[in-house]
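no rush on this but wanted to send it before i forget. theres a chain ive been looking at and ive put its sequence and its fold in token form underneath. please have a look and point out which stretches look like helix strand or loop to you. thanks a lot i owe you, the record is right below:
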Amino acid sequence: MSGIYIHIPFCKQACHYCDFHFSTSLKKRDEMVEALAKEIELRKDEFKNIIVETIYFGGGTPSVLNNKELEFLIDTVYKNYNVSNDPEITLEANPDDLSKDRIIELSKSPINRLSIGVQSFFEDDLKLMNRAHNAQESKNCLAEAVKYFNNISVDLIYGIQNSTNNRWLQNIETALSYNVPHISSYALTVESKTVLASFIEKGIMDDVDDELAHEQFHILKDKLEAEGFIHYELSNFAKEGFFSRNNSAYWQGKSYIGIGPSAHSFNVEERGWNVRNNSKYINAIQQNKLPMEVETLTKTDQYNEYVMTGLRTIWGVSLVKVESDFGSLYKDYLLEQAEVFINQHLLYIEDMHIKVSKEGQFLSDGIASELFKVNTS
């Protein structure tokens, strides 16, 4: 199983917290769409004998592209790759781009999954984050989207400054009221060189509160699990049968090709990333060159990658896989490093898999880093 991720590097305006690569100028939109299609074609040999199960439009804001442009890119994938009979094709979209007419139009396209960037249903939260939409647009678009799509994910952000646990619970309940089968939720984080980081540094805005984020993570988990959602990955919750196939492949270490400026690719043995510059990206592709740096992953890199991704999921880290793929020394090292966290009830072993307990989930990335192996090849 494999996937193709297509990065659309355009946004109407810059969210204060975002450090993803994008431009608010659409001047090179036509050239960019052509370049994306050409990169898709240039890289077809990478998946020569592999079936593409997922196509994911991320960004940026992919919904700034019209349906004709999106379908042109999907058609290009079909012409150059072996696509499964039932692929998951996801479009990340902002509520302000999803009018009733646009939703109906999208429902007639090959796109069969929407990931809607709501973030919050409170107006002051949206203004603080500098989102392009308002709360009513979120509610309107969800009310319409559920009529035409059965596979919808809603993005929510917790740990927002001046938020309260009661308001956060209201956000979750509002999302649930639309009967969406998938919710992705992330803690507000301060990335360097963002507007949010600048505001905090200048004292214009309070810093984020890790304790508040921790509390709201557990409110989210408890509420969604009580509503029948499965917490299948640290930031992702879904009803049975609605796990994101794209997300699942990523967290289970499957191969994927990243198309577009700043997009990352992975094939177990190598990790690659495209240049984070629209003009340089377009110029290189026009010359039939891939503007990508590639890193060959050592055995230790591959082990660390597996531990990091595995611990974030309900599947955990397989001791059998670690031993078969990396050897008994790696398995013994993993068990030795994990022992302190097992004793603290942050990790546990079940069916030969190391998994994170409820108490350890919010800390899983930090725990994973303590299990990493270093200084071997």
